[in-house]
Amino acid sequence: MDGEFDPPPSPQTAARLEPGRPAHGFPAADCLVILYGARSEAKGTCSMNALDWLLGADPAIRWQALRDLTDAPADEVAAERARVATEGWGARLLGLRRDDGLWDAGTPDTEWISLLALLMLRDMGLDASSQEARSAIAGVRENATYHSQGPWHGTPVFAGEVEPCINGRVVAVGAYFGVDVRGIVERLLGEQMADGGWNCEQENGSTRGSFHTTIDVLEGLLEHARATGGSAELTAALERGQEYLLERRLLRRLSSGTLIDPAFTQFSFPTGWHYDVLRGLEYLRAAEVTPDARVAEAIDVVRSKRDRDGRWSLENPHQSEMVNARVRDLDLDMDEREGRPSRWNTLRAMRVLDWYERARSTP
User: Fold this and answer.
1) Which of 65, 128, 188, 227 could serve as 54's disulfide partner, Cβ 3.0–4.6 Å?
2) pLDDT tens digits, residue range 226-284?
3) Is 169:163 a contact under the CB 8 Å cutoff?
4) Cis peptide before 270 (omega within 30 of 0)
5) What pLDDT score was predicted for residue 203?
6) Residue 191 neighbours by CB under 8 Å, 6+ apart
7) What pTM was computed for the model?
């Protein structure tokens, strides 16, 4: 296994592992119980072989695995999270900024790669209150403008532009890092379509939602609701958007029931603007939606991709993540390769299955 050469967990996370009982359907041979002091628990559906692999990973993965897949104390989770700013992938990504605080992949439109870098730091869980995060967001807020031929050319990135697929991601970053994005949120609320979705082609006459645009907007609005406490209008929009996904079982046409796109069943990371069922399920989990029968097929897709070691591979890496910018063009190597086990996809899949099984086991 490629994990043979992975670094061992830090002393804080190298909790004693012992054989344990099966956890929600995984074979006993794959399941271990992780102990934290007097407490022990094999949470949800986690295969502890895979969990140990995640706990030996970069702080960006490790702190989320501790929070979502173990019974680790909150102070230990917080300590691991704090390391994102100063160690590993997070520190390396922060260190790739230019003197003006922007990221640069060798093209003039630095706003796109800078937005992707901030989105990646959000995925890593960089503490938005940290000095490192405040410095990172300040550079983009003060210096990033749109390079385009549209009327928003030269305007600040956090003022937004016209496409909801872009604006949803700007809102996600802004809300997470404490930027006022209320103007963009109001625009997005007014652009929700009759079917509950959003579509970047709406300005060109489209009357139906798009999975890609809808997930971009939902993630942004959810982040804004968390940051601000939400509102009745925002809650209603989120619920309608969630229903857009659920009515289509996260992957099928409402009209015919046919699969919309085979790529929806392939798990990418970073996802960029692209939708897939793992991303859709991750959103529903984060939004604390109670899963019902409409997610069952998508859950089966996730289960079907679990390998014999309890891991999920990287599939379908996108050539374009946002416009023509890609995080990997920054030479930020997280050792994620197509067709090989992916720590990001394994983390995301394990906590989605945990969310689903826990809901099913609740009376």
Assistant:
1) 65
2) 999 999 999 999 999 999 999 999 999 999 999 999 999 999 999 999 999 999 999 99
3) no
4) yes
5) 84
6) 164, 198, 202
7) 0.87
